Amino acid sequence: MRGTVAYCIIGTGFAGTCALWHLVQRLTDPCRRPSLPPSALTIVTVERGPVNGPGYPYANDNVQLAHRCNNEASTMGIHGNDFVDWLVERKPWLIKEHPELVLETHPGIELDAWQPDDGEFYPRALFGIYLEERFQEAVERARAHGIDTQQYLRHEAVDGYATEQGFALSLRSLDTDHEVTVDGLDRVLLSTGHWQARTTDSLSADGGYVASPYPPDAVKAAVAERIRSRRARGERPCVFVQGMGPSGIDAIMTLCGDGEFTYTDDGHIASYRPVAYAGEEPLHIVAGSRSGFFSPVRGPLAPYEPHHLTEENLAEIRRDHQGQLKIERILDLLDKDLERATAGAVRWHDVTHPRYPSAREKLASDLRASYTGNLVYTITLKARRMRFYSRLEPADKATYDRLLDTHFIRTAVPMPSANAEKLLALMDAGILTTVRQGYDAPRTAVGEDGDFRISYRSDEGGRSTLRADCVISAGGHDFSMENHPSPLVQNLLKRGEIVPHEEGGYVTGGIALDARGGYRVMKRTGGVRVPSPYLASYGSPVRFWQHEHNFAGAFVEAAEWVAEDWLDAAAAVTARSAAVDGPGLVSTETGS
After folding, report:
1. Single pTM value for the model
2. Which of 302, 378, 392, 521 is most buried (most C-beta within 10 Å)?
C-alpha cells in the first residue's frame, strides 16, 4: 500500500484553474493540510492549449479585443472579489503592457485615472491574463511547499481506466503524437469545458458553413474566401449569423473588426465606419434566432425577493407529485412574481413573446436601463438559481429543453451595454439586420448556386427566405455525449467509467453525477450505476449546469467541494500510510 496521493485536472481553463487554486490552498494551509509529507503529493494538469489558465474561451487565439465577458467583474473571481482585486493590484502593469484592454472598456479615459470597476464587463482577453497568472501562482505555491506538479501542455487525454495502482490516463502530445501513460492517480477532475460537437449537419461539408464563431481569425478567413466571388460580380455579400446570444454577438464583432466605432465625449458609441473599398459595398450581416431578439441589457440585481416562487411552494408541488416538480406550476408561480413585482406591467408571456416589433427597438429600450427590466432579469435569474430543473419529472425536462431554456438563458444572461450600443450603431450604418426564424423554421438549405437559403418570419407573419454567402453557427450547445469530439470521453463512455444522464427514458445529455450530491460522476459496474471512486466533473460537461448555475459563483462552489473531497483522499491515505510504501505515480512514454 503506497503512502502517496496523486491528483489530476484535465482542462485548465476557468473550471480547472479554480479547482487547482482551491486544492493548493488547502494542501498548503497549516490548519488544513494532510499529515503526509508534501513530497508524497503530486498534482498533474493536462491542457490541450499552449498556456494554462485561459482555456478556450479566454485564450488569445480565440478572442478579439471587442469580445467581452458575459458577467460583471465582481462575479468572476476564483474566490471572493479576486478578479477586481487583481485588476487593482496589476493596474500599473496593465496600463503599461495592455492599455488597449483598459481603453476598450473605458474609452477616452486618461489611463492613470483608471479605477477598476466592479460592475464592468471587461474583455475576455483580460480575464484570460488573470486566469493565467492565478494558475501559475498556484503552481509556484505548491512547489514552494514541496508538492510535485507536473504540467502536460499541448497534450490531449485520450483514454482512462482503473488499474491496480489507481486510475490511469493515456495522454497524447498534439505536437509530436507521442503518448505517455500516467498511472497511480487517486482523483481526476474532468473540467474540459464547452465542446464543439461532432456535427451531423449536412451543411458542415460546405465551405461557407462555419461551425463555430471561434477562433475569430478562422471565421474571417472562411468568410473572406467565400465572399470574394460575390464581390467580383459587383454584388453585396451577406453573412448569416445563426444565434443572437453572446456567441452570436462575438461573431458579429469579429466580422466588423476591420471597421471603426466612434465615441462621444462621455465614452458612448456614436457611430460605425466600415472599411471603405473603392466600388464595393460593405458586408451585410444578418443575425437570426428563433425569437429574433438579442440577450437583454440589464443593470444590477433589483432589490426583490420572490414572493410566490419560494422553496416552500416548490416543496408543496413536490408533495403533490411524488417528490417531483411540475413545470406548469413553476411557470405559474414565476408569472405571479413578475406580475407582482412590476405592478402587472410584465407577465411570463411577455418574456417568451417580447412586446417589441424588432430587435432594434428592444435594444434601445434595454439601454434606457428601466427598473422594470432589471426586475424581470432579477426574478428570472433567481428562478434559475433555485435549481428546479434537476427536480422536474423527465417529461417536463424534455419540455424545458425544447421550449423554455432559450427564454431563461436569453433573459438571465445580460449583455454589456457597450455591445448593445455597438449593435445599434451597426444597424444605423446599414451593416446589421435581424430576423426572427420562429420555432417551426425549416432547416437552412443550399441553393443551386451554392448560396444558403434561410427561412424566417416576415413582419406580416408569413414565411420569407433570405440568401447568404456564409452561415456562422453560434447557437446553443449540443449536450449529446455521443457527439462529443473527445476520444477520452468516448473511451470513458465505452468503458462505463462515465455514463450519460438519463431519467425515465429521457436522455438529457451530459455526464451523470451522484444523485446524492457533490460532483462525483456515475460509472457503470455490472448492471448498476455507482459513484466513481476516481472521477469528478463540473461545468459544461454536466447537463444540469447550464440550467441551474451562475458561472463563476458555481465554479467556486464546485471547486471548493472538489478540494475538500480530494483533501479527504489524502487523509485516507494518511490513515493507512503505516503500511509499506508501494508504487506511486508512474509515467511511461510510447511512440506513435
Report:
1. 0.91
2. 521
